[in-house]
Design brief:
Elements (H helix, E strand, L loop, with lengths): L9 H38 L5 H23 L12 E7 L3 H22 L2 E9 L5 E9 L3 H5 L4 E8 L8 E12 L14 E6 L15 E6 L4 E5 L5 H25 L21 E6 L5 E4 L5 E2 L2 H5 L4 H10 L1
Parallel strand pairs: 4-9
Antiparallel strand pairs: 1-3, 1-5, 2-3, 4-5, 6-7, 7-8, 9-10, 10-11
Length: about 325
């Protein structure tokens, strides 16, 4: 950075400056951990031989807190893949199952919102397409935090729910499917060339509860990339221009990943039919089962991790599942 020509290439300089800032942040974090460990070791050494229940509980709590911090930092050693440190864009699409599936998609939406809040992420709803009777047809969330994509990447796939139907008069058992897609948020990518004539931009009124400009003016924006058929939408901002900017970010992320998949011949990496989400969330392709009847069990079919407390999982307690996915990959 001390080189006189460093700032002549602003794009490269910006990336290197960001990389340096991240390295400094990581280094500072581990220095803090080392200092905390040394202080704790001194406390333990001074305490040996004493019998003080209050002091014992205090040291146990300090040790537990430090252990959690180290475990959280350890996870980052598994994030060696591209864009792991980026913010994440998570989309949910209802699949086979009609109104049941739309209700299931809404349950997943809440689950990921709660997970993000528990994890300390800044969670923002970018778009919701509500169902006619209940639930949602699709929705898009933004998770802003370092390594948000690293943590959520492996949630991509089909999620299957088995329960007694709340929409059936006979209360029969019903199976529903929903598809989750996770992408890194990208401001722009050199490999993605988007020509203005390839875009169709539509505006519409935001759906959902009233307030501000919602349901009053056409601030929501839908952008369709005509060559691929990929369509994205944003409605969370007050102005049409801000929603357009947000929708373009999502489109760039989708197109960039599509290019990567083509180059690596792994188009199935996210899912086929990326633009609509229809016809892909169905029997046989699920990554995780959520069973509420006749017994209670959530099981990840890739890692084998299970929980007999589905209510807690659906309330956002996904740490055990996500941690196992990170280590598996």
């Amino acid at each position: 950075m001390e080189d006189v020509n460093f700032w002549q290439d602003h794009e490269r300089a910006g990336k290197l400056s960001q990389e340096l800032a991240e390295l400094k942040e990581n280094h500072a974090k581990w220095e803090e951990i080392e200092t905390a460990a040394q202080l704790l070791a001194m406390e333990v050494a001074e305490y040996q031989g004493e019998e003080d229940e209050t002091k014992t509980k205090k040291l146990a709590k300090e040790f537990g807190d430090l252990e959690k911090i180290v475990a959280q930092e350890e996870k980052k050693t598994f994030f060696a893949f591209p864009y792991a440190r980026n913010n994440a864009i998570l989309s949910i699409y209802s699949g086979a199952g009609g109104t049941e599936a739309q209700d299931w998609a809404q349950m997943l939406l809440r689950m990921y919102q709660r997970y993000g809040e528990r994890a300390g992420f800044n969670v923002k709803t970018l778009h919701i397409h509500e169902g006619q009777e209940a639930g949602i047809k699709n929705a898009t969330l933004e998770f802003r935090a370092p390594y948000a994509y690293g943590f959520l990447k492996n949630e991509s796939g089909v999620h299957r729910l088995v329960r007694l139907s709340p929409f059936n008069a006979n209360n029969l058992r019903h199976t529903s499917f929903a598809l989750v897609e996770v992408m890194p948020e990208m401001e722009g990518a050199a490999d993605v060339q988007i020509k203005p004539e390839e875009l169709r931009i539509d505006t519409f009124r935001s759906s959902g509860p009233g307030g501000q400009n919602v349901n009053k003016v056409e601030t929501a924006v839908r952008i369709t990339h005509i060559p691929t058929g990929i369509a994205v939408a944003a409605q969370s901002e007050r102005s049409q221009s801000a929603n357009k900017e947000q929708a373009m970010k999502i489109l760039v992320s989708k197109l960039y990943l599509l290019e990567i998949q083509k180059k690596e011949k792994e188009i199935a990496g996210l899912r086929s039919g990326i633009q609509s989400g229809e016809g892909t969330a169905e029997w046989g392709g699920q990554i995780r089962n959520y069973v509420l009847h006749p017994y209670k069990l959530v099981k990840d079919l890739r890692t084998g991790v299970e929980s007999k407390e589905p209510d807690e999982v659906l309330d956002g307690k996904l740490d055990e599942f996500i941690d196992s996915e990170i280590r598996l990959k």
